[in-house]
Specification:
The protein is of the alpha/beta class. The protein has 14 helices and 14 strands. Keywords: Glycosyltransferase, Transferase.
Amino acid sequence: MYAQAAIRRTARPCLLMPRADSIYVRLPNWVGDACMCLPALELLRREGHPLVLCGRAWAQDLFSGLTGHDGFIALGRSFGENRQTLRRSLAGHGSVRGLIFPNSLSSAALFRLAGIRSAGYRGDGRSLLLSWALPKPHGLHEVEVFYRLAYETLRRWQPGPASRPPEPGKRLALPLTAAHHEHATQTLAQAGITGPFVLLAPIAAGLHHGRPKAWPGFGALAEALGQRGWTCAICPPPHEVAVSRAAVPSATVLPPLSLGAFAALTTHAAAVVCNDSGTSHVAAAAGARQVTLFGVTRRERTGPWSPDAVCLGAEGQWPAVPEVVAAVERLAQGDTE
């Protein structure tokens, strides 16, 4: 009842949002989810609102091409320190509002206690902490879920214009910087990779309904591609180097890169082969040529948001190695059919 009353109160004309007001955006804590927010962020920017992105430190580099004219606030693990950081930043922004993409109670509490009136999906007791508590849609891709939150929030804050797209575009369109591409190019040169290569990402952290999310055929794939003359490379983060080497012992190991430089690296590859994981969404965001493998998750909900991505396998059925080899070679030759 209280949440419904709060929503009714926010619909009054006196609460319309001036277009110059900044929007503090709480990004998701997972790389893939953050990438899938990109169409929603672009919608907010199109409306003329400066954005202040708030998220984990890794997101600052990944989104540095997007936040050149906006701002970024790195959040750590301490709730109290994050609250103080946000409150200090508000001094230079005048009137602001918040949009919270994560579904956690803590993310809503952080913005509320920092003094930011915010919108987000209700649930888990969040309604009393949100000034605009929206019902979460079901049965949509995560990109559409995030976009719907931004779209419906803008409808409440600033009705119209009629030209506002009700659905996200077909691509994530992550802007990368010249520094990102330069770092990726230097890394390849230092590793002695001067020709076409296939970038493999064999690790997918965690379980899905108790089942591993990582395709077990990466080692055999690298051997098969090597026999066909392809150079295979991996570029794992520091905490995944050992397990990645074990999964693909024949691949060239590139040093760990920042997420922005890694995104650029995916665009230099003839093909990226990855699990349904954060790497899949980074590759899609960068516009890379990618093959994403499914065996325990549903591509309709979490698959790469790219019309050019090749998706193999299905929930409950991993693809075979020869199928992946054939897809890589077709993709590398420019055939996405």
